Amino acid sequence: MFTLIPFTLVVGFIVAAAYLFRSKQNLPPSPLCFPVIGHLHLLKDPLHRCLRDLSQNLGPVFSLSLGSRRAVVVTSASAAEEFLSHENDVVFANRPISTFGEYVFYNNTILTSSPYGDHWRNLRRICTVEIFSSARLKESLEIRRDEVRSLLRTIQEATSGGGNNSVRVELRPLLSGFTLNVIMRMVAGKRYYGEDNAEAKEVRELITNTLELAGFTYAGDFLPIWKLLDFDGYVKKLKKFGSKLDKFLQGLVDEHRRNRGKAEFKNTMITHLLTLQESQPEYYTDEIIKGLVLVILFAGSDTTSVTLEWAMANLLNHPDVLVKVKAELNAVVSVEGRLMEESDASTCTYLNNVISETLRLYPATPMLLPHASSDDRKVGKYDIPRGTWLFINAWAIHRDPKLWDEPDVFKPERFNSKEWKTQHGNFLPFGIGRRACPGMGLAQLVLSLALGSLIQCFDWEKVGDMDVDMSEGKGITMPKAVPLVAKCKSSPIIDNIVFYLISFTLLIGFIVVAAYLLRANQNLPPSPVGFPVIGHLHLLKSPLHRCLRDLSQNLGPVFSLRLGSRRAVVVTSASAAEEFLSHENDVVFANRPITTLGEYVLYNNTILTASPYGDHWRNLRRICTLEIFSPARLKESLEIRRDEMRSLLRTIHEATLRGGDNSVRVELRPLLSGFTFNVTMRIVAGKRYYGKEVDELITKMLELCGFTYAGDFFPILKLFDFDGYVKKIKKFGSKFDKFLQGLVDKHRRNRGKTEFKNTMITHLLTLQESQPEYYTDEIIKGLVMVIIFAGSETTYVTLEWAMANLLNHPDVLVKIKAELNDVVSVEGRLMEESDASTCTYLNNVISETLRLYPATPMLIPHASSDDCKVGEYDIPRGTWLFINAWAIHRDPEVWDEPEAFKPERFDSEEWKTQHGPTCIGLCFRFIDTMF
Ligand code: HEM
């Protein structure tokens, strides 16, 4: 204390001298101050309110002495624009150097605290490319959807205990857990909330501590002597905390380095950065990577969860607004019996207005992040010295009565007005200028999906009669002082959908009628009478192709069905099939439906058979054409097909030997399926893997595949997974992936060995070396999966049908044999692939088999990517398209005696002009050239 008095005097003297020196400058007005501490004593929590009150006397731009620092505070939109845009933006693009940044944010080098310059520009570029680019946001969509569903499930479990009564739900831990899981999964592939292990607990603690310790209110940042002597032990605490946090971040980076091949670490931001580290190790150091992880974690999670909590609190205090948001969601989303998706956000204008109004009244960072000037500057009439801290009071600007009508009232409608549309400068929750928030797009996606889903699925009310307390608490992001607790019960959308599956209640019936009226001015294909909610699902029977042909007999060759929340169109005539899948409509219908199987087993619907039409699909198709179906590759694999055929003949011959001169019984199915599977596996992987494990995988896949899972038509069933299908399929997907990864790794290890030399996997691994970003392991595994399934199953089924037809038509069998004798046996040799073109009758038998028994009688469903008109009908975007090849092949208007097996028909002149009616080409998108 004794030494502090003379010290204070000396500093007082220095400050007075500085004051005199500066007096020639026109600084913004300032209140009276004390020596040394300046205006520090004026600062009170919450800071944004205290600074707004000061501005009421001092004007919209005023200055403060905070110990040894000068700060300027701005509380008007026009002044904020003057400081942070146009020619002043660069000068104010620095950030203040803080003690917290020194010990926790890698000496103020991370994106949020780094000074403006090349290093900052580089970090910002990396973030934009690796996290915020539309490609990355699309890649991480599944994470956000999955975490929202998990949040809904947790609340649903809580409400199910209350029966018809509402239950109390503590929202803060749920919302902060949700946003942290989203961010951590994008960054590091891990979730820490909802998991009960030591690591998760430690991380939750680290985050809480970061938010507690961060901020710009530490006395040592303004009075360096305070920091030097560390009276309050803050520096010691920060040092300890900084090294603990660094240890955790280093652990994450090392874990990724060790496990880069594994599925869960594959597409994370850390893995992408480690790949960049390989090519530019001097720039992408571990410290840069850890800093980026920290920034995203720190800037991305709390801001979003705090906003969600404020939004919910506002809605509880304004039930009329809540009703309007719900009505909008019902009209846009629930009407289709599904849950909200991110893509719905653009249509839900009122929901977006609620979010904007929340950010206006309760901006998550009410003072933005402080800026600092890198040079002396004149802004308006004021001189602003270099090193000045700049506080923009967004909270005060958002409540400025000169800019906003009834500024303190929650009125989402204001964002609809024409006026607002020209006044964007008055609304700056994400900042302005070059340091503005780069995460705005991601934040808006998360906010609308989470808030929309919470409102869609549950009914919310405040607890008791009193309004929710809206006072602000302490913290760098502005939390509610009192954590939000609300009363909640499942919304009719959940209960009724489940209930309706059994007994069709009126409310959903009403929704369906509303949907019907909404669609009434469209000319959809005719449709049978359906039930509410389930639509026409009850009409579907096995075998589907027969059932749909029977329906078409009343409804015509093009009709539509409602399958739960999905619309489907069924086509049973050749001319209509041609209209849908060729000419100008082909591209619109070149998509595939998104299915749950595709999500968890077919690499999130990205493999060739399931992928939506677009660049990715085109690329896969090109790879397949070059690497499997090109004449050169087919020639290379000819020996495999010949060898496997000989082996099949040998097996049957050995069986017949046992019968002597008598015929023996031969079970053909296992022999034919073994044959086609061995051919495929040898072409793909060089080995006959027809062992028990693969056998089981294939049988299971065939069991699971198809388009009959109820959750694909009622997303709510998928969300709650009543029948455990999602769980089962997730497990199966990871088992299958393990098998495929095993194949790829084996090839990687043994590429030199002869048996692995000329396989499809080896070719793809060679391409991976030159273009690793495109030929990822996932792309290779997806291609292998497609070839195994599309290539083997369809072919052996066709062979079995062909043999069965021949057994029933011995006259046809005799004719083939005669043709083969003439072409092949006469030369005393076995048949070769090159003989096929000469054996016309044999080919006719195969065509006739494919006509009567097409291996995929309904083709693989297509889906429309846009609204379109086909013939006289309007077909809405997202419609599933079923082409009934089986019915087309038996259409009596096209085929003479359609049910009879008559291979000769393919010889006729008529047939030669009638290729349209056969769907062989469509049916076998991949395998026709192969076998
Ligand atoms: C409701 C959500 C959010 C709000 C209200 C918000 C608001 C802000 C504000 C006001 C700033 C400072 C702007 C300035 O200094 O002028 C900022 C900076 C930043 N935000 Fe956000 N933010 C949100 C979500 C996110 C998310 C989700 C991420 C990333 C995942 C993110 C990453 C960042 C980063 C990296 C910066 C520092 C930019 C720089 O200094 O160059 N933010 N944010």
Task: Provide key terms for this protein.
alpha+beta; 4-stranded mixed sheet; 15 strands; elongated; disordered N terminus; monooxygenase activity; metal ion binding; transmembrane
Q: How many strands? A: 15
- Helical segment tally? 37
- Rg is 35 Å
Q: Which range does the strand content fall in? A: 5-15%
Helix-strand category: alpha+beta
Question: Average pLDDT value?
Answer: 85
Adjacency order of strands in the biggest sheet: 1-2-7-4
Residues in helix, %: 40-55%
Family: Belongs to the cytochrome P450 family.
Main location: membrane
Membrane topology: Single-pass membrane protein
Binding site for heme: 437
Description:
With 931 residues, the protein is of the alpha+beta class. Helix content is 52%, strand content 7%. It contains 37 helices and 15 strands. The strands form 5 sheets. Strands 1-2-7-4 form a 4-stranded mixed β-sheet. The chain has a 4-stranded mixed β-sheet with strand order 10-11-15-12. It has a 3-stranded antiparallel β-sheet with strand order 3-9-8. Strand 10 (558-563) and strand 11 (566-571) form a beta hairpin. Helix 8 runs antiparallel to helix 13, helix 30 (725-749) packs across helix 32 (777-808) and helix 32 (777-808) crosses helix 34 (840-852). The protein starts with a helix and ends in an 8-residue tail after the last helix. Bound molecules: protoporphyrin IX containing FE. Protoporphyrin IX containing FE (HEM) is lined by residues 111-112, 124, 295-296, 299-300, 303-304, 307, 363-365, 368-369, 429-431, 435-439, 442-443. The chain crosses the membrane at residues 497-518.
